[in-house]
Amino acid sequence: MDSGKTTTMGYLARSLKGIWKKVAYLKLTGTAYKKDTDFVSGFSEVGFPSTYHCETEELMDLYQTLFESVSAVPR
User: Which DSSP category does 19 fall into?
Assistant: First the structure.
């Protein structure tokens, strides 16, 4: 926790987009941090401050919601 995993992947995604690759970056689990919103679409955008104690089915529904939200973005 707090080691920069989300930030690192965010920079990677941004770099790939910079060379015209199609990129969608989702943060499915963890704890919400304000700084993550610069890089990633994630669980906090749909009302989850944390995914701690979420059941598998709830996480799968969350994944589907996030996936649909990035799929709807024009390319």
Answer: T
Could you tell me the pLDDT band of residue 59, with boundaries at 50, 70 and 90?
Answer: very high
One-letter amino acid at 29 equals T
pTM for the full predicted model: 0.71
Phi-psi region of 47 (alpha: psi -120 to 50; beta: other; left: phi over 0): left
User: Could you tell me which of 18, 47, 61, 27 has the C-alpha nearest to residue 35?
Assistant: 27
Average pLDDT over residues 26-46: 82
Let me know: does 57 contact 27? Beta carbons within 8 Å. no
Question: Residue 11: how many CA atoms within 13 Å on its side-chain side?
Answer: 5
